[in-house]
Amino acid sequence: xxxxxxxxxxxxxxxxxxxxxxxxxxxxxxxxxxxxxxxxxxxxxxxxxxxxxxxxxxxxxxxxxxxxxxxxxxxxxxxxxxxxxxxxxxxxxxxxxxxxxxxxxxxxxxxxxxxxxxxxxxxxxxxxxxxxxxxxxxxxxxxxxxxxxxxxxxxxxxxxxxxxxxxxxxxxxxxxxxxxxxxxxxxxxxxxxxxxxxxxxxxxxxxxxxxxxxxxxxxxxxxxxxxxxxxxxxxxxxxxxxxxxxxxxxxxxxxxxxxxxxxxxxxxxxxxxxxxxxxxxxxxxxxxxxxxxxxxxxxxxxxxxxxxxxxxxxxxxxxxxxxxxxxxxxxxxxxxxxxxxxxxxxxxxxxxxxxxxxxxxxxxxxxxxxxxxxxxxxxxxxxxxxxxxxxxxxxxxxxxxxxxxxxxxxxxxxxxxxxxxxxxxxxxxxxxxxxxxxxxxxxxxxxxxxxxxxxxxxxxxxxxxxxxxxxxxxxxxxxxxxxxxxxxxxxxxxxxxxxxxxxxxxxxx
Length: 509
Hints:
This protein is mainly alpha-helical and about 500 residues long. Helix content is about 70%, strand content about 0%.
């Protein structure tokens, strides 16, 4: 079991967290907003195919064989009653949807390594730019050949694989330890905003203008975001030309108090990663969490259409509702998590385990319940899915930020390692859905297969919860510590100067 002897955060170390530069003038919150928009763009381009595919493909439609059921899917046509363009079966569709993750898995660790040494700004920005370019090419690829569409989705995965490691590397330099939960959850929650936006907007665009417009619209927005990112964001507080001295000193001194060096990473403790119990706890938990997350983000519109029997426009809007709620839970959960730590009500380890357990167990329970909903109880199904998916947002303040707790100096590459291995559910989950539903041609049989899928996800969530409870930690590991002697001397000098300002009644950060 991981060490549970972590002390509560020292009041003297956290006191200044309530005396901040105003949010509207804060460069660290500016980074949070720009990265939120970045993840928003990335996820719109990742999941728009899940809705567009419903409009692109002719699905086999047969009435239920069970005479006690009258759950008959609607005929699959486009808005202007023209038949859909492609005749791909369920296995082909899930191969196309899962192709993204075959690329996503390969760039995680290199991205963390590069961002740790050279900064995450360019790595993150180029990741979204290349994703946008491939998104713009998607209609051409789909109409040329099925294999070319798969190749484009793999390329998008390669481009987006850099995002989480690069952003963790940036927060290593920008997030004071006591603000990690709130800043990182604001930043990473952009992904759920992207899903929330992409699903209904994609449905509307497909209905009114045709499915290719979905890819042209989101790809263009991604290119525009890249331009704004390059002009407004910088790798570290020291690099930012417009940051105030007060905010820069607050961030740097907070990191140095924790023992985190401000210099760029020069070496990576690969062996320590491989032998660390908390790291393995993160890896296993990340895999378990991603199983349900990736399966739902990829297949939820299909479930809404085939099991709950919503039409294309309803499908997009109702599939977005859970992710709106998840975004709210993530952001508010991050605020609460840091408040519990700041007020010394719970240690960092206790906060991470409490939020992680709550998120994973609640999602597992409500996914299983959703599997028993009839097509006559459509909105009850949406309610169960909403509660379950929203609850998983608590996990953002659990294991997903824990990389910054146990190894802040190596957070980028550590996130790359865990997210790389945890990408497996991205293509395994849709493949399992495709395998289970391939021969289910009636509504009752498809519902039964989805029940199996939800039970599998629920069991995996329970295993992930127990793993993090037993193996998780909230303290910086010994192998991740580095004594920044010269920087500590400078920090102590800065602290003395700030103490003089305090004596004069000046508010500092």
